């Protein structure tokens, strides 16, 4: 069985392959057809559901909601042309950097 980032990479490839597909046969194609605003909205909804699960539900519910949230995040990345490898590289760049220092460096860029 694939692990961690491999699973996300494989799922991302599947998501990209559904772009332009039949919205009546693929939920992912339906999301793409509805546009970035709807994709972002669905990601937001799943994020809130994940927070609720973390605060008031069990581990199984949190696990399921986390999977939904990650799926919708990958759809959003695909719609925006952000490949998972770019995100992994950014996370790797931040490894060992204090979160406070990293936020300060972003504030200086903006």
TrEMBL record:
Range of residues in the leader sequence: none
Name of the protein in question: Phosphoribosyl-ATP pyrophosphatase
Organism: Phaeospirillum tilakii
Pfam families per record: PRA-PH
Domain of life: Bacteria
Record InterPro entries: HisE (IPR008179), PRib-ATP_PPHydrolase-like (IPR021130)
Chief localization: cytoplasm
Record pathway: Amino-acid biosynthesis; L-histidine biosynthesis; L-histidine from 5-phospho-alpha-D-ribose 1-diphosphate: step 2/9
Entry keyword set: Amino-acid biosynthesis, ATP-binding, Cytoplasm, Histidine biosynthesis, Hydrolase, Nucleotide-binding
Enzyme Commission identifier(s): 3.6.1.31
Catalytic activity of the protein: 1-(5-phospho-beta-D-ribosyl)-ATP + H2O = 1-(5-phospho-beta-D-ribosyl)-5'-AMP + diphosphate + H(+)
Family per similarity comment: Belongs to the PRA-PH family.
Localization of this protein: Cytoplasm
Originating gene: hisE
Keyword Cytoplasm: yes
GO MF, any single term: phosphoribosyl-ATP diphosphatase activity
């Amino acid at each position: 069985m694939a692990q961690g980032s491999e699973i996300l990479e494989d799922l991302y490839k599947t998501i990209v392959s559904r772009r332009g597909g039949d919205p009546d046969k693929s939920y992912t194609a339906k999301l793409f057809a509805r546009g970035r605003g709807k994709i972002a909205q669905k990601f937001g909804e799943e994020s809130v559901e994940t927070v609720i699960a973390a605060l008031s539900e069990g581990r199984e519910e949190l696990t399921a909601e986390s999977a939904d949230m990650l799926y919708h995040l990958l759809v959003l990345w695909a719609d925006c042309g952000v490949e998972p490898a770019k995100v992994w590289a950014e996370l790797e760049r931040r490894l060992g950097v204090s979160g406070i220092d990293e936020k300060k460096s972003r504030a200086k860029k903006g």
